[in-house]
Automatic annotation (TrEMBL):
This is Adenine phosphoribosyltransferase. The lineage of its organism: Bacteria, Pseudomonadati, Pseudomonadota, Alphaproteobacteria, Sphingomonadales. It comes from Alteraurantiacibacter aquimixticola. It is found in: Cytoplasm. Its main location: cytoplasm. Belongs to the purine/pyrimidine phosphoribosyltransferase family. It catalyses: AMP + diphosphate = 5-phospho-alpha-D-ribose 1-diphosphate + adenine. The gene is apt.
Amino acid sequence: MTLDQIKALIRTVPDFPAPGIQFRDITTLIADGRGLASAIDHLAERVPQGTSAIAGIEARGFIFGTALATKLGLGFVPVRKAGKLPVETIGLDYTLEYADARIEIDPSLVSEGERIVLVDDLIATGGTATAAAQLLRQAGAHCDTALFVIDLPELGGADRLRAEGVESHSLIEFAGH
């Protein structure tokens, strides 16, 4: 499938979760087997040589990240919300647009110096993705690439990641937010 065909599979829900927001709903993409497989194929083309693992951000990054890791025969590192992992973790507190948040990983899943690519469904302001890249680096990984299905470029998240030394690649873009 072409990227335009994949884009056509993503439903836009107006005024969710608040008036004026155009929510980009990927459930219609993941419900289409051919579309999901094609999105994973396109993401796989963007994974740099030498990558040893894929890290996915909870929750929709788990969908794309595990599928991508499976396709490439790589391990998967879940980046979880606070308190979700049953083992000792390392975490990072960060600020979202209107709230504070925390993400955590199991550091035993990361080897010193390994190259990990970060994956999520969408990049908006880049707060969570930037925090996830910093956390992976804190654990000893090289995290200099992030992949997304959707970019909302007006919100500046990809630029924020690039300012942190993380190259951002998205399959499609939507104007607005």
